[in-house]
Design the sequence.
């Protein structure tokens, strides 16, 4: 299937590894040129070289923290009018809500709610004028099925979800869609950190917690990064013009509900 994005430009945040890298690679294989960001310059350059070799597209890199005003300014200077925006940032750490301070909450909200909103605000008008735009926010399956120890993430990402639900209805008539991708269990650094936290809490080894996590997935395995990337690429495609304001799970069947 031709996704209709060859020659488009995509800004992909936190793309040096994990789910962000999977999205960047999938978009590149569909012919989209990339600007990718991440905090670690070395890993970012290695990923850029890997993507160029695999796809032949143009890949520019911007090292910096997308959750800061300076990081966003640098990314937007390199890519002021992307056709595609993939918002992504590491989630806040797990813990007990009794231990979280006001500053912890503000940091989580700034990174996982206000940062994507600021980037959407910066790119939306040119998308509307061109009558093409695709925005995908990588959030979490915890938005639909909250996890107690991830309360900072639950709260901040739910705030973004509510914002997108409203604004996405205003943009779709001009062929600009905004959707949220809700990953379940992919063996990324984020999930490893959660496993380490739970292992310490439960007095188990990380490997024991990892096996229990995997066995609880109806698919019988963790998700693959390339699977997530392909899902993202479709949502960013010309084919997905009738999908907006949605929270789309990719979790191997873990979510227990009907709706």
Sequence:
């Amino acid at each position: 299937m031709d996704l209709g994005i060859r020659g488009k430009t995509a800004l992909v945040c936190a793309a040096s590894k994990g789910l962000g890298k999977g999205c960047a690679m999938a978009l590149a294989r569909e012919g989209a040129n990339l600007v990718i960001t991440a905090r670690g310059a070395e890993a970012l350059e290695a990923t850029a070289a890997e993507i160029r070799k695999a796809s032949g597209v143009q890949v520019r890199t911007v090292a910096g923290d997308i959750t800061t005003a300076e990081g966003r300014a640098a990314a937007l200077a390199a890519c002021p009018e992307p056709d595609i925006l993939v918002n992504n940032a590491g989630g806040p750490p797990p813990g007990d809500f009794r231990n979280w301070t006001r500053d912890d909450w503000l940091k989580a909200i700034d990174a996982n709610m206000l940062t994507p909103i600021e980037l959407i605000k910066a790119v939306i008008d040119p998308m509307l004028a061109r009558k093409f735009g695709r925005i995908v926010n990588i959030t979490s399956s915890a938005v639909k099925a909250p996890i107690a120890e991830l309360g900072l993430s639950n709260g901040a990402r739910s705030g973004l979800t509510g914002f997108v639900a409203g604004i996405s209805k205003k943009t779709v008539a001009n062929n600009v869609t905004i959707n949220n991708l809700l990953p379940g269990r992919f063996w990324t650094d984020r999930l490893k950190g959660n496993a380490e936290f739970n292992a310490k809490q439960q007095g188990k080894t990380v490997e024991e917690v990892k096996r229990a996590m995997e066995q609880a997935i109806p698919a019988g395995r963790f998700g693959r990064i390339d699977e997530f990337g392909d899902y993202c690429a479709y949502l960013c495609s010309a084919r997905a013009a009738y999908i907006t304001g949605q929270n789309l799970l990719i979790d191997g069947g873990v979510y227990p509900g009907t709706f």
Q: What stands out?
A: The beta strands are 9-12, 33-38, 59-63, 84-87, 133-138, 176-183, 247-250. The CA atoms of residues 14 and 89 lie 6 Å apart.
